# Entry
Amino acid sequence: MSGTELRQAYLFQGLSDPELRSVASSARERTVAAGEVVYHKGDKGAEFYVIAEGRVELIVGTHGNFTCIAGQISAGGHFGEVSLLTGRPRSLTVRALAPTRLLVFDEDQFHSTLLADPRIHGTLDKALAERLFLASDGWSDPNDKSASLRGASPLAPLPGQTSGRPDGFPDEEKENGQDDRQEDFELARKIRKEIVRFAALDCPVLISGEPGTGRRLVARQIHLQSARRNQPFIELDLREFEAWVWEEKLFGYKQDSFPFSSGRQLGILEQVRGGTLVLFHGEKLSRELQEKLSEACGREDSAGNVLNARLIFILDGDPAALEQKSVFIPELTALLRDQHFILPPLREHKGDILPLVHFYLKRCNAELNKKVTGISADALGMLMKYDWPGNLTELSNVVQRAVMVSSGAEIVAEQIFLGQSGREGRLSFNLLRLPAVRRLFQGKLQARLSRVVLVLFSLILLILFFGPRDAEKNLGITLCWYIGWPLLIISFFFLPRFWCSICALSAPGKLLQKHFQPSRRLPAWAAAHSGWIMALFCLTVFWAEIVFNAYDNPRLTGMILLAIALGALLFSLLFERYSWCRYACPLGALNAVFSMPSILELRANREMCVNQCRDHACFRGTATSPGCPMFRHPFMVDNNRDCILCGRCIRNCKLRSIELNLRLAPRELWSLRNARLADNFLIVSLGAVYFILADHTRFLEQVRLWSDALAVGSTAAFVTSGTLLFWGMLLVGWAGYLLVSHLQALALAEERRKVALAAGYGLLPLVLGGFLAYYSKLFIQEAWRIIPNFLHLFGVRTGLGQFHFLSPAATTTLLHIIILGGMGASLYATCKIFSRLLGPRLTPSRLILPCLVVAILGFAFLAVI
# Structure
């Protein structure tokens, strides 16, 4: 090498021509072909190199398919001084990128000629300091987490992977002749298919989804199944640095940044030549960096190589929302439009939870040396109910924790630790988690109660028809109106329609139905209008009770009960299941509507039913136990109207999907999916009936005044007057409700029918409170009769006088508390109902009218009790 060529090197620019010739005479030349290694990492350092022509790259190391390149040095630069100065082996591998001519100084010449000259020594020190700065910048270590630069690591299996499958997804074939279907599920097949498709395209890809859905793993799979599988794979988390830092890291430093070594710090795009670059949290990319990236894959680097790295963008969040925010510039958006891979959250494919659990169990067993092979139905139900904000990652952690604390072969509910479920209004506790409660429904308690109630009902009928005609002496009247009926009304709040499951009125029909087994369905028109039919039947019973004063008429009371029993018997002989109870029973109508604000509900774990159930035994029944008598699949039930708590679904469901929840009492009123106008009609009508019942004596006096004014027979006049007054008051109540609904609809700019369908449910707690108060008053004041009435059956006369369980003051206080509680619950339910109806349009002023109506009715209820 001549002195002129040496002058091109930055290291020798301060030397004169004689000095340059002297330096050149102490060196020898070496020619290296493109791709040839000058020296390897770990070699003993014995020579110093100056590049006369060509270019070399500095390689930190190779990890699998990934080669980490620290930088490049071109003509005029130098390398190899570190080992000579420190005496340590080479820390880098140097490889020629093009035919290269080197000026080589051995160790003696390096020390005696180069370091002996203060000018060369000073320049060499500055170049070394520059290189140390570059090393401290975090680019030389492929495992440096601060830079988020990672090589392709051994593939972590995706849930559902079977042994030997490279893509991490379950194989569709069976192993060893055994059924492996629990590890082969629909989502895995879809993802596997999409990975193959994107891997073959060899173009930029956009992957989006929620955290924990496996986005990074999918990116690795696309790389490993593509033609680039043997090239570098790098992941970068864009949250770790600002945009300007990423620009330098991705595209490298300019050549003039390294004047002392003629070196160039490579950008990651050049390091990943021919490989795959994954940009995690792609939504953090600045517009300037997006513009450079959109052009990067088409331009050449300084060595003339095309930067053909494949880009994979991973976005965090909902794809539609990100698209609305215009996360990407139009150029990138157009580039990625047809290469969008969306990973669904776990809550949208809960049918895969069970095979996922089996996969995680196998992995955890291997890691923890456990032998947990299954999961109980209760525990699986908890997993199905949960919304999984952390998706697969969270599920894996939950299963791992359960396996760690498990001491048996099966995960049970107590070993499942979850966050708060995202389901609306889940302020509830499943009583069936208590073994004693479950045993009550799975045992024969209800059958025994039904027999006891049937015997008692038969005795009451006999006493009503053949006992004393004096109501005050008739035990049947006392048991019906002053003990049985009040206790029944009170039970609605605590045990919804449980009475219907042991009802003696329908018992004879149920027994005959087992023998005749009718298969005829109720006509469709009757089933469609059953709400109105039951409401009219219910109000008709109240009409007979009130107008004919059934409290003082044992025979009439017996006829009312007998008529209902005959209706149940007829329906049981003609139609399948409990058609009478579901579609026609007047007592069932009252029971159904008053059960809606109950503190108890029977529901099914919908996710379990939809994703795991195959036989639907709760509805269809089994060989030994019939299905739901009320024609309802439990997972379709969202209210207490149609469930009689018979317990058949609890006994039939092998998955233990049924829940008996203790809940916030009126929640059902604002979460109801299928509101019915017939329900509102009945609720408003029952509100009017309450005023008649609470002041029954005055009502009868008014009827007598009207009947005296009619020029017809006394009985006919009385019935006509009572009928007109009774139904007239109901009509006034219903007209008032429609008027208020109309005014509220105008104020809210909503449809009148929509308001009328919802507002009545808000009055239900108050109406129920009124009935509870009235019949509690009857029980407190009249239940004492049972003792003298019972003794009278045996001819024993007593001088027992009237007494009360509570004093008049205590009774009044209790009744007022009940009604005020109902009013408070109605106010709360009304606010929730209109909040759901109006959404963000709701303002406090729009609640004034409905809340005012509830308050006025509440104080009116207090006034008449």
